[in-house]
Amino acid sequence: MDKRQEGSIEYSFDRGVFLLLLGLCAFGLAVVGFFFWYVPTVGLGNIHPVLPYVLGAAIIAVCAVVFWGAIGVALSLISGHSISPSSRYRGFLVKLFLPVMVLFGGLFKIPRIKIERAFVEINNRMVRAMVAGGRRFSPEKIIILMPHCIQWEDCKVKVTKDVANCVGCGRCEIGELLTLADEYGIKLFVLTGGTIARRKLYEYRPDAVVAVACERDLTSGVQDAYPLPVLAVINKRPHGYCMNTGVDIVAIKGAIEELLGRGGRPARAVIS
């Protein structure tokens, strides 16, 4: 067995935990909305008897939108595909539900990595739904972003400045990734951190991204890049975090094929 894959386990996510936190988020926001209506009702009623009902109607409308988003995200997770190609559900997930779910997860001592894995999975489903709904991306408008820890730790070649410097020795997957990027005509970058990743997005203005990293970095990266579609692939970590990590080349090729509208294997990963 290849050393890079020793100790790896099949990637999975806890759907039940994610749905529990999603429900708590929607319910918690509804409760907060109720108190925002109930507490000032006495004061508003003294100003004008109609004002409490106006505020109540506004809060009900906000809660309805929140629950609509929660139901859409939940159905996407349960059914295995997004019920709508619209990016609105991704907006609910990325900007509203994820931060609140992390808060509730901390209160209930739920490991953050479980939330992040589920987030990565459902984000990918929603991006695939955009493609299924007719969205297409040209190769020159797609970029692949890789963490620098994918490079073999003893390698002396500097690939973060220019990935073409890779000599293709085979000790890590960078050579294979470079061949894959050249095959499709897609830009590939090996990055040292999130700041550089954001700079590349600003410089090249892609329409879509294939990104590889750990759960935490992928979660923050998808949030930073929104509304840009990102197909996220969790890295392999046979030696732990941030050292001699790896990536499933087949998953990267599948992600590229999906963005090009050619089908392909869904973007998943092997982790350890």
From TrEMBL:
Keywords: Membrane, Transmembrane, Transmembrane helix. InterPro entries: DUF116. PANTHER family: NUCLEOTIDE-BINDING PROTEIN-RELATED, POLYPRENYL SYNTHETASE. The keyword Translocase does not apply. The keyword Transmembrane applies. The chain crosses the membrane at residues 16-38, 50-77, 89-108. This is DUF116 domain-containing protein.
